[in-house]
Amino acid sequence: MIRLKPLALALSVSLTLAACQKAEEPADTAAAAPEAPKLQIDLAQVQQQPIALKAEDLDTSIQACQDFNGFVNSKWLAANPVPGDRTTWGAFPALGERSLQVQHEIAKAAAAGEWPQGSMEQKVGDFFAAGMDEAAIEAAGLSPVQPELDRIDALSSNADIPAYIGDAYARGQGMLFGFYAMADYNDSNTNIAYASQGGLSLPERAYYLEDREDYKAARAAFVEHVAALMQLAGADEETAKAQAQDVLAFETRLAKASLGRLELRDPANRYNPVTLADADASTPNFSWTQFFAALDVDAPESFSLPMPGFFKEVDAMLADVPLETWKTWLRFRTIDDASPYLSNAFAERNFEFYGKTLRGQLEQQERWKRVLGALNGSMGEGFGQLYVEQAFPPESKAKMEELVGNLMASLKTRLENLEWMSEDTKAKAIEKWSSFTPKVGYPDKWRDWSGLEVTDESYVSNLLAASAFNYRYMLDKIGKPVDRSEWGMSPQTVNAYYRATANEIVFPAAILQPPFFDVNADDALNYGGIGAVIGHEMLHGFDDQGSKFDAQGNMANWWTDEDRKKFEAATTKLADQYSGYEALPGLFVNGKLGLGENIADLGGVTVAYDALQRAQGEGFTDPMIDGYSQDQRFFMNWATVWRIAFTEAQLKQQITVGPHSPGMFRAIGAPSNLPAFAEAFQCKEGDKMVRSGEDRVVIW
Ligand SMILES: [Zn+2]
After folding, report:
1. 3-state secondary structure of 196
2. CA–centroid distance, residue 628 to ligand 1 (Å)
3. pTM surpassing 0.70?
4. How far is CA 615 from CA 404, 408, 434, 662, in A?
């Protein structure tokens, strides 16, 4: 199975450190001879421009106090429908598209040039060239995964399966459950191994279990998909149909034994340190001791084995599911996971189900975009070194430091002045605040890719080599100190994150563009954009999950019982607010699932607004740009960030899978709780954008 999503990211990885100086080049790339050519792209070739707040895009026939998202976003969205090869379109996706186009220029230049063997340019160029070699990919058909299929065919009894699983994971081809290294929840300085539930092809367990029309349709389509895929791989129609039913039944058992998304929000449900002996005793048919040995990882004193129901079920299935069914499922997962990278018949089949049926995407992405997706999954941070050299202006960093500084100061003031929290808990909150580590742009120290060989000969071979290399890299962390300089996202990713075990907030280079960030824009735009995102990431440290980790990144209760009760009462009110948002007729947002994100939005916008006032200082003269005040532009840019349209299927999936509330509700959810919003737009009590009295939510 070709894992493009690092397993570790499923439940978040480890790390920290601040500021970004240019790191020393690793030895293998610095080995370039003095006359080696320099990769250079022309950014003017990049057509997709960022979507910034513009007065001409506002629909002034809509009242900001009634429908703020409509006022800011509806006109632009009506004029810019979702492109056929996407399932969402708006400001965030447009930056993703722009990043892809920059990456495309880099990859083309790398593929066209001559580079020293082992340099990042050579690896990126060859990976891209092999991925674009459609003729070779067509000629290869299913053959790139045949060795894996042969190993599965060779299984002769159920007792062989655990050894096969260990062997497959050692090659980076995990499929049945998650297994990864991450900071110990009880000792955030040390990495331990974590196992977690997995094995599902559909997006969430509810798709297998709930009696909803769209889930039932997804199950029926899944069975058709499995049958079609097995036929493509050589099975006759009747056999393929029977196998498809077996695959659904197999995964339904896993789904029934899995925890739901809401349960997984509680870190205690994701962490359960056990000794190897206790782990082995809990699953008599699956030896964890042998699994660690197969992975060539020293037997640990303990590792995290939570979700006992899931692993108990896997153990039972090892005994009672017939060998032929196991082989069918393993075979299906091997081919299904590889399909996007195989010949067109397989890639199309994959798109038909996972793209068109489940997400409402009308057209397959062009090959170059798909290959860049694979490249990012295989060596994203390595590729990011080239991205940063071409597309990250150094002046962005200084401005970001100023913004982070003001956001930090404003959050501290808010914590000190919280009316509902006792002094004891407050002191702990401020201690946690004081240990935030911001990271901006790209890592200080780049990862070493010298052990990964990439050639222009076979796309799938490169993917398999990268899977094995990356998985080994992660396994080697088990039992070692956490490297706080590591990043969990590549610089070309349009996103940001908070990691509880490191108490760090991280902003990759590619998000530092409009509408989030513009070094030349007025403060209102930067504070309403990236400022609120900085606040959002900080507030994740104090959301329903982050608040269960302390300043050192350990899972610990630093709250008094009474403060915790008050926190939960306030957050319940916030969950109820979002659960009232109707995304499609009869389909409401799940406020509990999105709670952490919505706490972070509410706090983030609040703190960013305070920070804007702080940045403007006393005696500030409002420049009134296009007739709008700085306060208005602050909120308008927050809504611009969340300017987005969805295909119907994608919207349904996002609501089920979460955790983020769809953008149209993020645009309004936090501002409607802020008196500053009502003041800025002169809204009245009773207007839709004004929550007051008991309805108004204040948390941080
Ligand atoms: Zn978030």
Report:
1. strand
2. 29
3. yes
4. 11, 12, 20, 30
